[in-house]
Structures are given as C-alpha cells and as structure tokens.
Amino acid sequence: MYLSSVGYELHRSLNEKVQYVSNPINAFSLLRRTHEDLPKWHEYFKEAIGEGNQSILVDLVKMVPNDVDMLSAMHGIQRIEKIYDLKIDDLAQGVLQGVQYNVQLTYRDLIAMGNSMYQQSDYQTAAKWYRIACKRELENPEQLFIQILGDPSEHLHRQYIKSLFKYGSTTSEPSKSIEEAFIMVQASQEELDNIMSDLNEPQNDVEVEKDLYQVKRSPSNCELGCRGLYRQKTNLVCRYKSTANTFLRLAPLKLEEISLDPFMAMYHEVLYDSEIRELKGQSMNMVNGYASQRNGTEIRDTVVRYDWWSNTSLVRERINQRIIDMTGFNFLKDEKLQIANYGLGTYFQPHFDYSSDGFETPNITTLGDRLASILFYASEVPQGGATVFPEINVTVFPQKGSMLYWFNLHDDGKPDIRSLHSVCPVLNGDRWTLTKWVPMFPQMFSFPCKS
Ligand SMILES: O=C(O)CCC(=O)C(=O)O
Ligand SMILES: [Fe+2]
What we know:
Serine Threonine Protein Phosphatase 5, Tetratricopeptide repeat; 2 domains; nine-stranded antiparallel sheet; four-stranded antiparallel sheet; binds 2-oxoglutaric acid; binds fe (ii) ion
C-alpha cells in the first residue's frame, strides 16, 4: 500500500530501473524515502512483529542513504530549479521544462525541500516549497502513514508562516515582520489553524504566489547556455571528413563544426553501443568528484562520479586508436581514459582543463599541459546535461556516440580562456562520458606553432 501510494512498481528490468531514477523527481523521492521513512518503517515493524521476522528490512536499513547523500540530492533539486528556472509548483507536479512526467513529489518530499531551503536562509524558496506542501496536505492528508512516519503538519504550518514573514522582511520593513512572525508561530494550535485557513483562501493564496514569484534573479551567462538560449551561430557546416589520413579516406566521418574561432568540432557516430556497454562495465569503482575541490572546509557537493579506465582491453585500445586516427594527435594508444557519470542534478562548475586552473595536476613536467580535450558522449540525455562554453556562447547537448573536441591552449602553449566550460546539471537522464586529455609536448611536430 505504501509503495503504491508513492507510485513505485516492484518488478522492473534493469533498464526500467535506470529510467526510473533518471527522472530527478523519482530519484529524489526514492532517496528521501529510504533515508527518512525506511528506518521508521523498520521501528514500526520491530514493535509489531519483532526484529527476527524482518531480516530483509534489517539488511535494507543498513544500506540506507546517509545525511550527505540526502544533502546532495536536495542540492541537486535546488540546482535544477535554479539553473533551469523551473517553477517549484511545476517541479512538484512532475513538469520539467514543459514536459509532464507521470510522477510527482510527495508531501514529505516537499517539506524536506522547504526545510533545506530554510536552513540555507533562502526564505523565498522555502516558502514556495512549504506553500505547495500545504496545498498537497489539503488534497491528501496521508492519515494512513501518520502513525508510522509522524505528523509534520504543525511544523509545516509554522515553518511556512515563518518563511513568509522572513521573506517579507527582506522585501519590506525588516524588523517588524520578523517579530510578528515569531509571535505568530508561537501561536496556539487554534490560532495557527486560523492563520492557515486564511492563507489557504484562494484569493489570498494567489496574492502570496504573486509575491513569492515576483522577485527574480537574472540568469548568469552559463545558466542561459544551460537553457539553450545562446544565439545560434550561422556560419558553421556539417561535412564528411576524409582527407587527413588513410583511415579517414577509407572511413569518412561526419564532422559538425561547433565553433571556428576557437576551433571546436564534433564527430558523430564514433562510439558504438557495444563499446559503451564495455565502458560501463569498467566503472565498478567510481568515486565522487566534488565541487570546490580546493576548499576543504565548505560542504562538498558531489558533482560527478568517475573512474579511470586503466585496465588494458581491446575495446579501450580500439577507442584510443580511433582518437589518433580522427584527430591526428600523438599519444600512446594504451593510455587510460576517464569514465564519468552524472546523475540527479549533478554538474561541473565552470573550469579550465589546463593545469593553472588547479583542478587536477596533470603530468605537465614530462608531457606538458592539456592542449586539447576529447569528450565522447556515451548516453542520450533527454533533458539538460549540456557542455557549455560561456566565453564564446556555445552550448553542446550530448548526443550518444558523438565526440566533441576543443583546444585549451593557444598555439604558443599559453592558456586560452575561451576554453572555459562547465557541465549543466542533468535534468532528466543518466549522463555518461568518456574523456581523454591531449598533452602538449607529444604534439610538437604534428601541431607546430603557426608563427
Ligand atoms: O562532460 C563534459 O561535458 C565535460 C567534462 C569536463 O569538463 C571535464 O571532465 O573536465
Ligand atoms: Fe573540463
């Protein structure tokens, strides 16, 4: 009954499971349920039927996502809401950029998001989440689960009122509203119910909604890129590339120009499904990559999961050889590649791939800095997940099997700041990539300085 109340079907194939968690609403809801609700169900059953009779649940409870996982998921939802400018009402109903999915966030999911925003002192956004939770409460009081999961209703009402006042105090007279808020949230249950029924009056609710959504932040250039709002470049062509070497003469490749200055291009249909299956098979020990890697003190948002494909394999060597044939770059064909996977709301903040950006220290003493980056898209991403170059207003949406490459350095080896790039959060999908960085020194003779 519980699972059907949250729309969960038990019997799914692996593909269906991946598809299920590719939707951020499902992924978040599942994570929150297992983090917050499952231990409560465990307690309930322990009392009702005794611990010995529920070994499956005991094992499950040991594996529930921890606080950090929960925080990452909340940040993921927060990020997609902000970067894609999604209306929280839509997000709660399962609408992502105009696409309606057959899922919605639950009452308790909405409260968890409100609480998270409140803790971050973003009272405007907190009030938006709480407002929708209050509406949901009126539609579906969830009486059935209150005994087991607790009744958050009073907490929700007090938090909603506090957020509204605290937000109000930032837009109008500061101190008065805050004092009023504190008096109101300490009100008796009866007074609280009166305030709530006032707030829930349709005409008042419309006013509140207008108020909450009236102040908007202007989007950063990167955010515009993520939303696909840069002006299309018009002087670019798609062509078959067949002249550079014997390989290309025999097997011309579809090349799409992405930018002429600096030069960036994308090859299509150059990574095959069988290779993608193999690369996913190599990704059993993925580790978290974090935002703000250089600052150990702040909360480290998980941005990506990655692993190095370092096992020698025929497929890896074939891909390495293909890169050499396609690009003319020089490197050893048995070099490792990086496999990355971006799930719920994960992203990569704007950065440069060259070493002075300091994200990672490539082996620059022997091989030189990262001259170019080669990125294979190993999955379709139905929504979001673009690679954005905000300095040159270029957005590239992933296309499964395609390879994008760009230069990070000028001909003379100096950093080219136009190579600044970021990965937009995945809105809906499971984003896989395979990356190779091209070191500079081995290219000395194939890519000599022009001057
Ligand atoms: O996945 C992408 O689109 C880019 C990844 C990236 O920038 C990196 O790994 O350095
Ligand atoms: Fe990068």
